[in-house]
Amino acid sequence: MHQDRVFDSAAFFQPGEAEPPRVVITQSSEAAVVCWHVEPGQRIELHVHPTGQDTWVVLSGQGQYFLDRACTSTALHPGVVAVAPSGAVHGALNTGNAPLRFVSVVSPAMSGFEPVPASAASAA
């Protein structure tokens, strides 16, 4: 691989027992590139990046991508690109039988991270 410019994402996917780990591939002031490995039944809790965009490219697995506090969702599967503009609520749940793996690009890298509670209707 070309030093610091081309990466093998397979080397960065790591399972986590309690929650999916966020594993940084590379980061600059312009963007952070992150690998996510979400086990069946695990979720990435609802959150926002107040000052930047988060783009997910799904490589393998199945899941639901949450679009708002009510947990309105759409399917995640290989080939899907999900974009959360600055301040947009998003999260995910692995609904499949295999790990959900995707690469996330947050731009700019220091876009902030704020957890968002689900609405009362969706928490029930």
Q: What is the name of the CATH superfamily of the domain at 40-123?
A: Jelly Rolls
The helicity comes to under 10%
Q: Nearest-angstrom radius of gyration?
A: 14 Å
Helix-and-strand structural type:
mainly beta
Q: What average pLDDT do the residues reach? A: 94
* Main beta sheet strand tally, sense and closure: 5 strands, antiparallel
Summarize the structure.
With 124 residues, this protein is mainly beta.
Describe, in plain words, how this protein is organized in 3D.
- It is built from 1 helix and 10 strands.
- The protein has a domain at 40-123: Jelly Rolls, CATH 2.60.120.10.
- It is mostly beta strands and 124 residues long.
- The chain has one helix at residues 120-123, and strands spanning 22-27, 32-38, 43-48, 53-60, 63-66, 73-76, 81-84, 90-93, 100-107, 114-115.
- The strands form 2 sheets. A 5-stranded antiparallel beta sheet has the order 1-2-9-4-7, with no helix packed on it. The chain has a 5-stranded antiparallel beta sheet with strand order 6-5-8-3-10, with no helix packed on it.
- A hairpin with a 6-residue loop joins strand 5 and strand 6.
- The longest helix is centred in the C-terminal third of the chain and has 4 residues, at 120-123.
- The chain starts with 21 loop residues before the first strand and ends with a helix.
- The mean pLDDT is 94.
Characteristics:
about 5% helix, single chain, five-stranded antiparallel beta sheet, Jelly Rolls, mainly beta, globular, about 120 residues
